[in-house]
Each structure stands twice: as C-alpha cells, then as structure tokens.
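Why does residue order matter? Because the sequence determines the fold. Keep that principle in mind as you read this record.
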Amino acid sequence: MATLCNMSADYYSRLERERGPQPSPQMLASIAQGLHLSIDERDHLFRLAGHNPPPRDSSSEHISPGLLRVLDRLQDTPAEIVTELGETLRQTPMGVALTGDTTQYTGPARSSGYRWFTDPGARDLYAPEQHAFMTRMYAAGLRGIVTLRGPGSRAAYLADLLLGSSEEFRRVWDDHEIGIRPREVKHFVHPEVGALELNCQHLIDPDQAHSLMVYTAVPGTESYEKLQVLSVIGTQTLH
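Structure:
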C-alpha cells in the first residue's frame, strides 16, 4: 500500500497507527490516488486530516477509480491517462516504452503542447510529414481550452508563455484556427523499432477532463509485429 501511495512503508505505518505527522495536501493526494478513492472519498480524507479539499474543476489531477481500473487492465498495451492540457498522469509500462516516461516533466513542460513548441526533441518521436498538422492541432486545441476555461485558467497561462517564447506558436495562434482534431492513426518514429502506425482510441472522463488514450496496431501489419518487439525491449530503451 505504501508503494501505491508513493511513500515509505515506515511513514505509512506510522500514519495508520496515528503516530505520524499531519500529512501534507500533496501526501493526502497520493494516498487518495493510491487507495483509488472517489472524489467524495478524497474530499472526506482531506477534511479528516484538517485540510480543505482540492477544487473540483478541470485542473484536478485525481484520476477516477474507474479509469484507473481500465488502465490497470492494459499493462501489455501502450496507454496513458492525460489531462486536457496533455499532462500525463499515469502510463502503462508499454506506454513508457513507446513514448518515454512523460510523467517526469515539471512546470509548463508537463504539457505535451508546450513541449512541442519549446523542446525540439519532442518532435523526434513523430514522422516529419505530420509536424505541420500537429503544430496547427496543438495551437487550435489550446485556443479551444482557453475559450472554454477563461482568461485566468492554466490554459491561458500556457498560451501567454508560448506567445512570449515561440515565434512559430505566435504565427499559428494568429491564424485563429479551432476544431482541429487529432487523427485516429498516429505515425511514430521510435528510436528502437522505427516507424509505427498506431490507432489511438480515447476514453473520456468528463467530470475530471481526463482522457485514457490507448494505442493499438492492426493485427498482421508490420506495426503490430513491431509492438510485440517493443514489449520485449521494455521501458529501458528510452532511458
């Protein structure tokens, strides 16, 4: 249980025995996620520990138990849970093998769209012929979220950062495009297995603005065979 909650067994044991210090909000969030608590149960836990619960809005990073259960059944498939800003909250081992550990980023760089415009290495995983479309897609997607969430939102903050740091973003932002959806088939260029054509299915949790993204290949294709190879290579290839 301590491992699920990202803490030491000694610390968790002291909490159970009511001998530990008052847990911080960050520690309570880890416990709530590790125990697969619902939002109501998470809020109750925070109040029991003397803290106000986190807000129930699009910025929440508490993954619903149902979405976690689905992810847990996909251990042999590339999959990830992301926020509406493209911040990875959880990945399967195969997800890490495909894209690297994208939970490691901090600050604005947690957003895949922010990395697209500020980190040239973020584009290496995708086929060059897809780059122009993805540039437009990320800008249009962020514009839609800014409109939905308002000028004081995290989305608006990211847009301001990008307007100040990326000439490419400023150019496509000025086009005012909206509604450019991700394509169902994504073209990856993996450093170990090469080109991959993977279908991407989304399962959306509207209450949390989270998406479960699952990547699959058509059986019998070269990409399907490469995914089998990738499962053997494991998560060490990108580290």
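The chain has a mean pLDDT of 90.
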